[in-house]
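Why run this: before we spend reagent on co-expression, it is cheaper to look at a predicted model of the complex and decide which construct boundaries make sense. The entries below are exactly what would go into the expression plan.
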Amino acid sequence: MAKLVGNAIFGQSGGPTSVINASASGVFQEALKQNDILKVYGAANGIRGILEENFYDISEEDIEELNLLKTTPSSALGSVRYKLADSAVDDTDYKRLLEVFKKYNIRYFFYNGGNDSMDTCNKVSKYMQKTGYECRVMGVPKTIDNDLFGTDHCPGYASAARYVATSTMEVYHDARVYDSPMVCILEVMGRNAGWLTASTALAAYKGQGPDLIYLPEIPFDMDKFKKDVKEAYDKNKGKVIVAVSEGAKDKSGKYISEYASDLAKTKDSFGHAQLGGTGAYLANVAKEVLGCKVRAIEFSLLQRCAAHCGSKIDVEESFLAGQMAVKYAVQGTTDCMVAYKRAEGKEYKCEIMLLNLSEVANTEKKIPADWITPDGTGLTQDFIDYALPLISEPSAPPMEDGLPRFAKLKKVLAKPE
Amino acid sequence: MAKLVGNAIFGQSGGPTSVINASASGVFQEALKQNDILKVYGAANGIRGILEENFYDISEEDIEELNLLKTTPSSALGSVRYKLADSAVDDTDYKRLLEVFKKYNIRYFFYNGGNDSMDTCNKVSKYMQKTGYECRVMGVPKTIDNDLFGTDHCPGYASAARYVATSTMEVYHDARVYDSPMVCILEVMGRNAGWLTASTALAAYKGQGPDLIYLPEIPFDMDKFKKDVKEAYDKNKGKVIVAVSEGAKDKSGKYISEYASDLAKTKDSFGHAQLGGTGAYLANVAKEVLGCKVRAIEFSLLQRCAAHCGSKIDVEESFLAGQMAVKYAVQGTTDCMVAYKRAEGKEYKCEIMLLNLSEVANTEKKIPADWITPDGTGLTQDFIDYALPLISEPSAPPMEDGLPRFAKLKKVLAKPE
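The model came back. Tokens follow.
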């Protein structure tokens, strides 16, 4: 493939994770090293920063701070939820992107995100190909939801899973401290795929986790829930822990959170329902059935930004994913997403592979049906064998006064050539 | 003081912390070493376990597991909220306690808890004195609320504070990730004293914390809140973080949580209102005022059991507090609570002192008025200087598969002599 010399831009999109900045660190540090990449830009708020010519010159940043990005949660450049129209219907944004790419001689476009972001990345890639503007486009995955197609797992999942499993074990001990019954419902993020909710099964595997786990993969049946929770209550002398995905829905597709409130009726710009209140609603149901004390705990934003309880493998792989996206692009690859391929065998090993963007855009990977126990409220050993190696080593940011020292970027605005 | 030979019993009471078991570890390991203490018992669910003759023989436990208690959250023996009547009005429980003490030759009684538990401890001590039954009674403090009288700080506070400050810093980054306004309300535990809510000021001190902090020490004024949040919104381009104590109340003494729901009308056995929903209520108020996206995050049980994000000083001091309670008792001290005395000077040093139980029972220590900024929504440097040394070093449990390895006790039921 021909040599391509020009500038590179990187953007972060969608809900952040505690390692999305590790990928940013990998992209930036590798791109700054590459001779074919002249300038390295970081887009403020993803694609919107490019449309608005609002991006930073990364060469102005201190290398120490770029290194600290590895353990800094959230999207340091700012994120965005912005859906590009079909270019056949409305090509306004695409024309503007092309204009900006030309103005700043952008020849490398790296985009870091989940399903919706890979859709954006794919559309940009196809448009640039169509117009004949030479530009290498690479997707870098991330999502605590772990639902991207074709990759063994997603950057961000393991750290969120380690936090959720650890906190679940801690709550397990706290929630059974009194000599009176108590039902505790843990609400975990995950719209359509239950991978993160399933991570509570790692706590159960250690004998300190939920009695019942409800995933969005299995239609939620309220009568069965009442029966399940009553049985667990009787079996465990009134101490019950339940984990439920925020995206749990009944067979008609109605979210449990919709049972409770009208909040879910507001839609965000991708047409997803705004979720919330699933745990609180089920806690009230349990209270009605059992008449005991109940408590709902929502891991909320905490689960996706808990860099202090991250996974070392996740941090290292996320950095590597960013690095390799740059290396592949410079070597001539375009229109691909980097992905993880796990080696066969007992020992955990993982390498980077490539997937076509059109394959991954908008395709969701759910938990295999045979990894869910027949009663629909637990995970099999296959899931434990899959997930446990990913969280096997801790990661935490460097400390200053006992508190995390996160990266501080200067964010010097870029100027055209 | 005369030598006193007999058995010892230890109980845990009130809401657990992530280091209450560190004190248990200190009491158990020291008591097992002392020649004057023959048998060491752990009461199941505090005072109730004694009343019901439901306690464990600690000599049956493995020393490794007793050591792991140092970093195991929650109350390993089980806790209780049980208020002893005034013995002058109803001495049923006291007579029963004396009966059990005699039956098991209990001559040492160690009780670990907060305000209400020190009240229990004090009542037991005074009753035993009155009846002439020789028994040394020692209180060991604990409370994430940090509101016990006479001690520089309380075991459990620093670990909860480190978790809350760390998580607040992480949420600070996550909650400002999009290019649209967002008000995020963090709800922190603390009924009448705002020490734990104030720990979010440590995050603010690092430039990554709340814009506004509402403590129960300052009467909550809804109109002022609306004005404050609007000002912060305008100043920070729509990104606002608020920390509020679950116990925030208006000048009439009405809890903010009571504004929202009738939940708060149910009372627990100590007559405290059941709190909850303060953050969610204020998030809705902010939404009404500003019309932007809002989110309420409740640290809930997570903040009091997060041993994975503990304070090393807290763990070590809590262990020492348990140890010293036993040493003092064997040397002849009774009717006291062990407490912390901080040395003057810049370097952090702390030693164990003694306080009379009647001094500490039911007395609450609040944040000094001059440590709160004049606008009532921040903490001064005096607070930072007080709290920062307490969280300066991390503590985490040993790991197994990347997950915490918590203590597993055998809990062999004790039999009378």
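The mean pLDDT of chain B is 94. Chain B has two domains: 6-143+309-361+395-404, 157-307. Bring this page to Monday's planning discussion.
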